[in-house]
Design goal:
The model has no long low-confidence stretch (mean pLDDT 80). α2 crosses α4 and α3 crosses α4. Helices cover 61% and strands 0% of the residues. It is built from five helices and no strands. By secondary structure, it is an all-alpha fold.
């Protein structure tokens, strides 16, 4: 299952395109924080966290589909980077 998730979004694809703030959001997501907790940590509104998350998923090419969890794929991409 993990291999399938990673192959759909390899680490080298997209991470370099993230802004510093998107990368911070991704790091907190990988640490297991919810969007609300991420917003509190980074002093962002819920809508701002949503904006960064949507942008980040697009840059990482993580589609919104029924077969996989986008948060899990994003976190695995972050955790498995070189």
């Amino acid at each position: 299952m993990i291999a399938k998730l990673l192959s759909a979004s390899p680490p080298e694809r997209g991470l370099s395109q993230l802004t510093e703030r998107e990368y911070q959001v991704l790091g907190l997501m990988a640490a297991g924080l919810s969007n609300q907790a991420t917003g509190r940590r980074l002093f962002l509104s819920d809508s701002a966290v949503g904006k960064y998350t949507t942008s980040m998923f697009g840059k990482l090419r993580i589609a919104d589909d029924d077969d996989t969890n986008r948060r899990v794929r994003a976190a695995l991409t972050y955790l498995n980077q070189p």
